[in-house]
Amino acid sequence: MSRLWNARSNYIVCLAAKDEPDLEKLIEKCEQSGLEHFVFREPDIGNQITSIAIEPSEQTQKITSSLPLTLKQNNHVTSV
User: pLDDT tens digits, residue range 11-51?
Assistant: First the structure.
């Protein structure tokens, strides 16, 4: 998968989620859609979910379309 991504685009988009429960909802959507994803947890803060990586696809665009770009907001947000 990563070779194909590297050959075709080599871009990463960083989006923002409000909090860990929102990330958990996004993970659930990935699982329901059969999307490959990887969850990042921070052991220093109770193994809290801090971000996720999702394979690029049209379905990924659909389930993340409501999330703003990470640096677009001034509020404290969690990266996706």
Answer: 888 999 999 999 999 999 999 999 999 999 999 999 999 99
CB under 8 Å to 10, separation ≥6 — which residues?
Answer: none
Q: What is the pTM of this model?
A: 0.78
Cβ atoms of residues 40 and 53 within 8 Å: yes
The C-alpha atoms of residue 75 and residue 29 are separated, in whole angstroms, by: 24
Rounded Cα gap, residues 32 and 40, in angstroms:
19
* 35 touches 60 (CB < 8 A): yes
Looking at this protein, which amino acid is placed at residue 34?
Answer: G
H/E element, 42: strand 37-42
- What is the sign of the dihedral through the CA atoms of 63, 69, 78 and 18? negative
